[in-house]
Design a protein that fits this description.
- The complex is a heterodimer.
- A five-stranded mixed sheet of chain A has the order 6-5-7-9-8, with helices on one face. Chain A has a two-stranded antiparallel ribbon with strand order 1-2. In chain A, strands 3-4 form a two-stranded antiparallel ribbon.
- By secondary structure, chain A is of the alpha/beta class.
- Chain B has a single domain, classed as Protein Transport Mog1p, Chain A.
- The chains are: A alpha/beta, B mainly beta.
- At the A-B interface, helix 3, strand 4, strand 8, helix 6 and strand 12 of A face strand 4, strand 5, strand 6, strand 8 and strand 9 of B.
């Protein structure tokens, strides 16, 4: 873990067990602890009283610690709070860190030492560059390409399956590592992003029996940035992928995960409403449909990004409108368009 | 109810026949299985989802349970489109590394089926 550990909290050790509704001036330090580590919003609870909000925050802490989420300040909770710990918050806006560390710098440098034998020219490298840009659009951490001799933080390449730093024999497509401090491959930089170039066929785009470089690169760069796998189907950080498939936009879960580790990038300006209603039937086609579909995929919806507004797009539109509490008609008009591009 | 070995030394009971899905592990010991109305993913290793990120979902339930003799963090919620989702994360112990099993059921149904499937996990 990159962050410095902080001292245990001796004042918390002096607070007696408390049940919901109890008051004790000593509870202030417990409430400060819960705010500091992301379990409670600052100023929301009544100071010195184990009120409903404080009890909820304690229950979140207990769940995070694997304790029974009683919401009471009991002896086991007190003991857990007074253990030496990482100085980073556990939760931010209710979302837990996906791993326990991140890069402690404002820019990462990367370099390529090889490309895929399956793709001509700079095609495979360009796909990885595009994946960096996708993550870069979500957070303020910068990425800069350098030469491999310029001490990059990350080196990307295509390797035989029997890669000496981590074997990819037997079905895995690639490997990477977590940031320094929570590494699983090497504690030193450069960190590897290695693709198996002997057991699999690489391609840019969807093609039968082949794997899309950008899709897998987006996943591996998520690990480089500190994300573990996501159990949610359809997420970039899901553990498996199919051939003949692309996923090159972050889903809502991926964005939530990465923005719990790094400062969120300012939301891009929403594109203007295209001036026509997107509806089905008949099937509508166009760049405006493609733009809307890509954004809906980023918002976590499962749909094809093909520029065709058909029954699947209409279904997703209706689901989104229902979530947003606006009129449910399956038609992308000015209001639905504006909500689509609002901050996730 | 038929029992399926979904990873070496890891079995579960499924109400429907499961077959290997057309999916490849990206960078871990992961495997996907599917049957009518069910999709199961088993992910073993240091990259496995610790299931710490879902408490903020509107209908998420998070609990600690003992499954197959191991402690597990169990999460249930509903995905977009009304698809029920359940997952269990088993931290590393002295017998095997960290492991996450997730399952999705049929849209519109409750999380009971995927949750029951996870609770049937046994280790050998």
């Amino acid at each position: 873990m990159a962050a410095e550990p902080v001292q245990a909290f001796p004042k918390i050790a002096e607070v007696k067990p408390l049940a919901p509704g109890d008051s004790d001036p000593g509870l202030n330090v417990v409430q400060e602890f819960l705010q500091r580590f992301g379990y409670a919003a600052p100023g929301a609870s009544q100071s010195g009283t184990l009120d409903e909000l404080t009890s909820e925050a304690i229950a979140k802490f207990q769940t995070f610690q694997g304790l029974e989420p009683s919401g009471e300040f009991d002896e086991s909770t007190r003991e857990a709070m007074t253990q030496p710990r990482c100085a980073m918050a556990d939760l931010r806006s209710g979302i837990a860190f996906s791993t326990q560390c991140s890069w402690n710098q404002s820019e990462l440098t990367f370099a390529f030492d090889s490309g895929s034998d399956d793709i001509s020219g700079e095609g495979s490298q360009d796909a990885v560059r595009s994946a960096f840009a996708t993550w870069g659009a979500a957070i303020t951490l910068g990425f800069r390409e350098v030469e491999v001799g310029d001490s990059p933080d990350v080196v990307i390449g295509w390797r035989p399956a029997n890669d000496p730093d981590l074997s990819m024999i037997g079905g895995t497509l690639a490997h990477a590592d977590f940031p320094p401090g929570c590494s699983v491959v090497t504690n030193s930089v450069p960190k590897p992003v290695h693709f198996d170039d002997s057991e699999h066929t690489w391609v840019n785009g969807a093609s039968g029996g082949s794997f899309d470089v950008e899709t897998v690169a987006l996943h591996e760069l998520g690990h480089i940035l500190g994300l573990a796998h996501s159990a949610v189907p359809g997420a970039v950080m899901a553990a498996t992928v199919s051939s003949n498939f692309t996923l090159i936009a972050l889903t809502a879960d991926d964005v939530a995960g990465i923005q719990s580790l790094y400062t969120a990038a300012p939301a891009p300006a929403a594109p203007p409403f295209p001036g026509r209603l997107l509806r089905f039937p008949p099937v509508m086609r166009g760049e405006d449909v493609l733009t809307w579909q890509k954004r809906m995929q980023e918002r976590g919806f499962t749909l094809a990004v093909d520029g065709l507004y058909g029954p699947e797009s209409k279904r997703v539109c209706r689901e989104f409108q229902r979530q947003q509490g606006i009129g449910v008609d399956g038609i992308v008009g000015p209001i639905t368009w504006e909500r689509t591009f609002a901050t996730i | 109810m038929p029992e399926f070995e979904v990873a070496p030394g890891l079995s579960l009971d499924s109400p429907v026949e499961l077959a290997a899905a057309d999916a490849e592990a990206i960078d871990s010991r992961a495997a996907a299985w599917e049957g009518p109305g069910l999709h199961v993913v088993v992910d073993e290793g240091e990259l496995a989802d610790p299931l710490l990120s879902y408490g903020a979902r509107p209908d998420a339930a998070v609990r600690e349970e003992t499954i197959g003799g191991r402690r597990a963090r169990v999460v249930t919620f509903t995905l977009e489109g009304g698809v029920p989702f359940a997952a269990a994360h088993f931290p590393a112990d002295d017998r095997r590394g960290p492991l996450t099993i997730s399952a999705t059921g049929t849209a519109g149904e409750s999380t009971d089926v995927p949750l029951h499937l996870l609770r049937s996990v046994t280790f050998s």
